[in-house]
């Protein structure tokens, strides 16, 4: 059955360099690895809802509104055998309210984690079982996105554009995207690599500045922004940072492990395939008599024998993101070399710093000139966009954004004093706010679960945990 929403086939595919806010240079050649020929432009939210319905038709039980906590339930040999649903009905001060319900444990012979990038439970599992031993730190990017209803005169269903250059400085990693869908809808956004060094950078404001380019200004003139959202993606794991994907009692699939093709900026296809491989491996293992808590070497082998491993780690992308470490032009230059090598170069770039460690102290950084939001036509204040996410959390509950034990003084004495509190700029939901004295206020109710704070905060002093089930952004057709 062909879903009704897969009706916008890609009809035109452009890669454009934006040297300034006025000029655009279209690449005359698009490598096949970057081509979207044969693809469809869809809403991932619509796709997931449709897949959920189909899964339930096959007897799969889905429990929306129940969040899995970061607790790892193990047996007497330390093997993961269950997950625990987060307690519900706990007040902000910790007491149990009238509607309190203790979270139940759900057991399984294999726990397959598909949390996406920087999943909170996946992170704890990786630490407990040392899944990242000998690997480079993962690299992440924050994608900030808007959906616009544009004039019919400029709507071009099926037209896909990816850009590099303006407004990003040449030493940072990032780029824009513009997807034309049916019904005069345009999905556009900007992806900012979180390894940027300037503490004054704001990924949200990079998107606002991006829209001031003449190419986008012309597209959006007379239109209306109808959607907003943000989420981190894993844009630099590569072979160098791929964790062990099987552990005692479970497996990692999709972006929980880093299966995103950074060259294509796509991970849906690899997430689906690794999910299928994990399911097939689990069925085969259990049919062979495997007991709860086993390590599925079958899944590890199946993944490395699949086209996923070939696409991401052998042929295509292991050196693409690292090549941008010394700037845009060196990255593009390496991309040109890649056209000849096809990823078969005998070397592999490595790195030791995570994204947070790359941030420079404020005194070493230049101010960034961002446009003042016009508030209604093209650029917006973040507080005006937040309602478009539909974000909603139970007000009377403990904050799911916690300062780690022993780091209570870190926000004021380090993050604010040395870095001018970068979390108040990189957060795309205005969760973090410092006063003039350096006191940090956390507006957890604004959180749209992008996970940036668990990646980019100096010293990693924020621990992101799941809120009460059902809380968070309520995206429509994003």
TrEMBL record:
GO annotation, cellular component aspect: mitochondrial inner membrane
Q: Where in the cell is it found?
A: Mitochondrion inner membrane
Gene Ontology MF annotations: 4 iron, 4 sulfur cluster binding; electron-transferring-flavoprotein dehydrogenase activity; metal ion binding
> Per the annotation, which location comes first and is thus the protein's main one?
mitochondrion
What EC class does the entry list?
oxidoreductase
Please give the superkingdom of this protein's source.
Eukaryota
Q: Cofactor binding mode, per the note? A: Binds 1 [4Fe-4S] cluster.
The UniProt record lists the EC number as 1.5.5.1
Pfam families reported for this sequence: ETFQO_UQ-bd, Fer4_ETF_QO
* Co-factor(s): [4Fe-4S] cluster; FAD
Q: Residue ranges of the ETF-QO/FixC ubiquinone-binding domain?
A: 140-233
Q: Which UniProt keywords apply?
A: Electron transport, FAD, Flavoprotein, Iron, Iron-sulfur, Membrane, Metal-binding, Mitochondrion, Mitochondrion inner membrane, Oxidoreductase, Transit peptide, Transport, Ubiquinone
Q: Which residues form the ETF-QO/FixX C-terminal domain?
A: 377-475
Which reaction is recorded as catalysed by this protein? a ubiquinone + reduced [electron-transfer flavoprotein] = a ubiquinol + oxidized [electron-transfer flavoprotein] + H(+)
* Family under the similarity heading: Belongs to the ETF-QO/FixC family.
Q: What does this protein do?
A: Accepts electrons from ETF and reduces ubiquinone.
How is this protein named in the record?
Electron transfer flavoprotein-ubiquinone oxidoreductase
UniProt source species: Perkinsus marinus (strain ATCC 50983 / TXsc)
């Amino acid at each position: 059955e062909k879903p009704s929403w897969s009706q916008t086939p890609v009809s035109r595919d452009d890669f454009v360099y934006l040297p300034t806010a006025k000029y655009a240079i279209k690449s005359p050649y698009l490598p096949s690895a970057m081509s979207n020929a044969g693809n469809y432009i869809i809403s991932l939210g619509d796709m997931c809802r449709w897949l959920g319905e189909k899964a339930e038709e096959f007897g799969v039980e889905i429990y929306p509104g129940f969040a899995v906590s970061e607790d790892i339930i193990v047996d007497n040999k330390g093997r993961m055998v269950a997950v625990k649903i987060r307690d519900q009905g706990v007040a902000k001060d910790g007491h149990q309210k009238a509607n309190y319900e203790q979270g139940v444990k759900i057991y399984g012979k294999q726990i397959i984690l598909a949390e996406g990038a920087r999943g909170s439970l996946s992170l704890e599992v990786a630490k407990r079982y040392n899944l990242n031993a000998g690997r480079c730190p993962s690299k992440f990017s924050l994608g900030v996105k808007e959906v616009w209803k544009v004039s019919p005169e400029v709507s071009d269903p099926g037209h896909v554009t990816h850009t590099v250059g303006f407004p990003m400085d040449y030493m940072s990693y990032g780029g824009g995207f513009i997807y034309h869908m049916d019904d005069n809808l345009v999905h556009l956004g900007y992806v900012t690599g979180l390894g940027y060094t300037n503490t004054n950078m704001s990924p949200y404001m990079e998107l606002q500045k991006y829209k001031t380019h003449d190419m986008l200004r012309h597209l959006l003139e007379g239109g209306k922004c109808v959607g907003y959202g943000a989420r981190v993606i894993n844009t630099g794991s590569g072979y160098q940072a791929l964790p062990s994907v099987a552990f005692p009692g479970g497996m990692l699939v999709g972006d929980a492990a880093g299966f995103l093709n950074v060259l294509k900026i796509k991970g849906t296809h690899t997430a689906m395939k690794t999910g299928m491989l994990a399911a097939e491996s689990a069925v085969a293992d259990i049919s062979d008599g495997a007991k709860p808590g086993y390590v599925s070497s079958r899944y590890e082998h199946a993944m490395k024998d699949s086209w996923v491993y070939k696409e991401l780690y052998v042929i295509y992308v292991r050196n693409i993101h690292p090549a941008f470490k010394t700037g845009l032009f060196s990255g593009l230059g390496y991309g040109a070399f890649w056209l000849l090598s096809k990823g078969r170069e005998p070397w592999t770039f490595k790195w030791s710093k995570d994204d947070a460690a790359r941030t420079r102290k404020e005194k070493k950084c230049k101010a960034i000139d961002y446009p003042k939001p016009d508030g209604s036509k093209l650029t917006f204040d973040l507080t005006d966009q937040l309602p478009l996410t539909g974000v909603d959390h139970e007000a009377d509950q403990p904050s799911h954004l916690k300062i780690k034990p022993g780091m209570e003084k870190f926000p004021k004495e380090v993050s604010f004093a040395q870095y001018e509190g970068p979390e108040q700029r990189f957060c795309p939901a205005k969760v973090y706010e410092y006063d003039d004295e350096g006191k940090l206020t956390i507006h957890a109710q604004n959180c749209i679960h992008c996970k940036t704070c668990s990646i980019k905060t100096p010293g990693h002093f924020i621990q992101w945990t799941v809120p009460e089930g059902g809380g968070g952004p309520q995206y429509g057709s994003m």
